[in-house]
Amino acid sequence: MAALQPKHFSFYSIGISYRKADAEMRGLFSMNEETIHNLLLQAKEEGIPSLAVISTCNRTELYGFAQHPFQLIKLLCEHSHGTVEEFQKIAYIQKNEEACDHLYTVGTGLDSQILGDFEIIGQLKMAFKRSKKLNLINPYMERLLNCVIQASKRIKTETELSSGATSVSFASAQYILENFPAGGPAKKILLFGTGKIGRNTCDNLVKHTQNKEITLINRTKDKAERIAGKFDLVVKDYAQLEEEIAHSDILIVATGAQKPTISKQLIHTSKPLLILDLSIPKNVDENVKALDNVTLIHLDELSKVTHKTLSNRENFIPQAHQIIKEIHADFKQWQDSRQFAPTMQALKNKLSTLKEAEIKNSRTKIADFNPEQADLIADRIIQKIAGHFANHLRNEEESTEEAITLLNKVFKLEGSTYES
Prior knowledge:
By secondary structure, this protein is of the alpha/beta class. 52% of the residues lie in helices and 12% in strands. It has 3 domains: 10-158, Glutamyl-tRNA reductase, N-terminal domain (Beta Polymerase, domain 2), CATH 3.30.460.30; 168-310, Rossmann fold; 341-411, no CATH class. The protein contains 16 helices and 10 strands. The strands form 2 sheets. The protein has a 6-stranded parallel beta sheet, with helices on both faces. Strands 2-3-1-4 form a 4-stranded antiparallel beta sheet, with helices on both faces. 39% of the residues are buried.
């Protein structure tokens, strides 16, 4: 990897996801906005040069530079409810190129619980934007994310990887359609929580179920009213939650709280009630299962709803990987050029110093000497010499670092340390 940071720093991705961690365990490592902000501030204090954090329903991950991955693991465990021991059982740690590959697969939906999930790239953008405000994103990570965004756009436009159901919020609408087919009596739906997943779920419910009997409740009522106004839906006060649950056929919970917000004590109805919990950590207490009339479905189960539609989408995975390969090749070329850019600049400076000394010396020793012409010719020669060295470094099969060290030694270059 190009040394875009001080020596001994490497680029890592560390985290946990649905692949090895169930909803309970993902809940232990999940973080809200305030927690992530505090983690980033501590990272800055501890000398971490660049770091971004995402915490979604399916994964919690840190992408950043460190001298050792435990620096990042320690930050994660100190700012979540998970322990180092629990992390080690279910986690993954990737370094340098492997970490880059992972960011591409995550950002393009290839590593999502629902293949082709289009929401994750937006979450990554927000994570990097959050860190950039704290001056915690270096040029390497900023360029890498831009490449991931470019890959995501191309895969969406050039393949059908993201066709059909591509998010948990869509899957919830799909589940309702499969269990309550259109044409039957309208079901009363209550959506509790209007965060990102709640908003997307509301959008999908209106678009795909054609159901207008949807009520929104949020702890902050004005947020619910803004969303309801967009779809012409009903908003109720948080104090009316129990009453509205009693009148509902379907309860969708997406509050983003750190502890359960719905328990059997809030359910006072004997008619069938379907509860979809779209939250990590879980926002619905398992004790609701003790009620015979309640069916509880968590997002891990919801993701399986769309598996039947994924077989065709999987055919586009090789094409998606090829797009990533092409874009990452450009990134690596940029990466290599930045690695030896300080050395090339130092070489040009050295040659320019030699040029100035020779021109000054020639003014008095050569009759009819033309300094302007000599300066122009010398600059062209310097550019050609620098170009030859740049091509050598770019195509060097051995260690580029060793080649740069030799160049520094031969020309006694100054100011040619690696760019940070």
